[in-house]
Prior knowledge:
By secondary structure, the chain is mainly alpha-helical. Helices cover 78% and strands 0% of the residues. Helix 4 packs antiparallel against helix 13 (344-372), helix 5 runs antiparallel to helix 6 and helix 10 (281-294) runs antiparallel to helix 11 (305-334).
Amino acid sequence: MNQRNDTATGRLDGQMRLLLAVNGLFVTASALSGTFIGVYLWKASKDFVLLGAFTLLTHFLMAATFWLAGKGVKEGNKMVYFRSGIGVSALFYAAVLLLGSNAIHYIALLGIVQGIANGLFWLGFNVIYFEVTDAANRDRFNGLAGVVGSVVGMLAPWCSGYVISRMSGETGYRMIFMISLGLFVAGIAVSFFLRNRKTEGSYDWRLPARIWIGPRTPWRPVFCALAAQGLRESVFGLMIGLLVYIQTGSEMKLGNFALITSGAGFVSFYATGRWLKPKWRPRGMLVGTIALTAMILPLFLGVSFAALLVFGIGTALFLPLYFIPMTSAVFDLIGMDDNSARHRVEYVVLRELGLNAGRIIGMLAFIAIISVSRAPIVMTWTLFAIGSSPIISWLFMRGRLTFRHSPS
């Protein structure tokens, strides 16, 4: 088990700060370009189903990459896979840069590349995250990671929107994609300062299946809670920014939307990460889940920019109350004892399989519904139904949110 002198105080050491830095560079590069990838492809296709298929393929490949790469991460050098995830992400944006307006004709290939990139990066990141944090500082790390993400979410999309809106044709998009490539390279460079902690034993391919079918395992309800979390992430991650662009027709206004909502998220992640204690997780997460669902209601008045802005600000304010307890409690469960910690790679894979199972189900449902009807009221009810899934997460997690690992 990882223990450190900062455990009692919950302070972050040098390795945690380095991991935050790498994550910050990766998130910045992704936010600069990723916010507008959906818009870029939408402008070329005007097809929700095609974009949904792209997202669905990304989730399938991400899940497969987690499961297959788990062996190499556990038995080899996890840092190689971690850096490869950043490198393949750079390759994705390089491909979009080279293909230009023809990217829409290679949507399947791009979905495969992005899925592999995300799988490699987040598998490596989550294993390293578990190794450099513990139950005493995990909420604080997640809060700071959320702060970094919010600051990036404020500045990066706004800068992208400004550059794209000031340049003609695809010139602005190409410049933003090139800047992202540079940031991915910087992330790889910083990652060399992270230590590679060796893991014990051989990779157990069948552990996720045994956990699922095993009697009285806490992981079965946790898996369901993670799937409910992923259900919302996939659809909302695709649709919200795209709806803002469709309503306004402006990349700059999409950047402004990200600036305002991420500003609210910055305040909330900082406050939640600093003051939310493990014993308050159940109530905090309940408030977060109810509020996240309630924030969708303004969209029933009409999917306007104003309604989307109310939704975005409200979601940013209450998301940390849902996300931080959920994430910290799951990783506390992975660190429940020495035997569990030795299988941390397999448990991280199980966590990501749960999230991606939900993402795939959510996107399949979304594609099926919009293939039948794209009426605004149908779209709103779909968002409401899928957006209510955090309540399911809370129902499965409520008895496990204050779980703490046993000392080793």
